[in-house]
Amino acid sequence: MGNKKKAVTIHDLAEELNVSPSTVSRALNDHSSIGKQTKNAVRKLAEARGYRPNAIASSLRTNRSNTFGIMAPWINRPFISSLISGAEEAARESGNRVIISQSYDNRELEKENLQVLYDSRISALIVSLAMETTDYSHFGLFAKNGIPVVFVDRFPARNDIHKVHINNFSAAFEATEHLIGQGCRRIAHIGGGRHQGIYEDRWSGYIAALKKNNLLVDESLILQATSLSAEEGMRLTEQLLDNAHPPDGIFCANDTTGVSAIRCAKSRGIKIPEELAIIGFNDDPICEIIDPPLSSVHHPAIEMGKAAVRQALAILQGNLETESESSVTLDTYVVARASSDRKMDSALTAGIVTLEEENVPDNSSAGKKKK
């Protein structure tokens, strides 16, 4: 193998142009003290020689890398990948890059990877908490060093944070009322760990809808998952269907478990939605692929990613003037499909029917008005 080609430096360009390295640096950064003719000459030579700026060295000088860190639980889940896509687009449009890391819902791995992001001298951090995380001390490193942290979707139950989220209580209330509206009376709930505020709020919205409609809250129909995986969805649905008094409706805290619930019920010959109506959460693409199509709650993932970056930029620029601006709440709605809508005409079976949002109270842990 041949020798590796030596990277072209600012000093190489300066020597070839017979100017100082500082002149080359200012020309590349479009500094006003450098004339147009010199700037053009420097840029032309830099392109011809394949010069690449040293981002790490630049960040050491300025203490900023123009790079946002993104910490997510699982990047292979559609909601998270869409959220990251929205964040990357907004970052790129603002002249920033992103570094993506994932925690696999493990707090210790989240802590380790956050240290790596910090060591990469990121300008801001956007994070959706690992399912296991209940101690947030590992985020203190960023606050101590003036690096903005914006939580998105999953966030600590604290008031002194910046966050982008939806009203999970209201969304779950509407999802449960949708099932009630289809005639369901024994509605089960497959939820996430309730130590995470978003799953506590979805459980609370589900309970509130049952109580409002004078339906029994049966604890045997309320199951808690640790990761909301497909395997858990199958196992927990089996448990529900083995109940002495099985449910006639299931509200799942994500679409992965909702799809598993459909598969499990169909394997037992249960008619969906006639005998069992099912609704998920997130409105992932798989909702329209599974047969029957899965009803869900629209979760504006791309918009949430963009909003998180805008929030981080506003903090960096000192443009957040009030405490209320620290929390951004985006709208959501029920998307009714054939897995739950017993009244749907056959011509609409493959389509989408949206239900208008009801004016339900905000009893979420966030306790913020919609913006």
CATH topology-level name of the largest domain: Rossmann fold
Counting copies of identical and different chains, the oligomeric state is single chain
Q: How would a crystallographer describe the biggest sheet?
A: 6 strands, parallel
* Beta fraction: 5-15%
Name the strands of the widest sheet in spatial order.
2-1-3-4-5-11
Looking at the overall shape, the CATH architecture of the largest domain is: 3-Layer(aba) Sandwich
- Unreliable runs: 345-359, 366-371
Q: CATH H-level name of the largest domain... which superfamily?
A: Response regulator
The average pLDDT value, as a whole number, equals 86
How many individual helices? 12
The domain count comes to 3
Q: What top-tier CATH class of the largest domain fits best?
A: Alpha Beta
The succession of helices and strands, N to C, reads: HHHHEHEHEHEEHEHEHEHEEHEEE
Q: Which percent bin holds the helix content?
A: 25-40%
Terminal CA distance: 60 Å
Number of strands: 13
The assigned structural class equals alpha/beta
Taking Cα atoms only, what radius of gyration do you get, to the nearest Å? 25 Å
Shape type: elongated
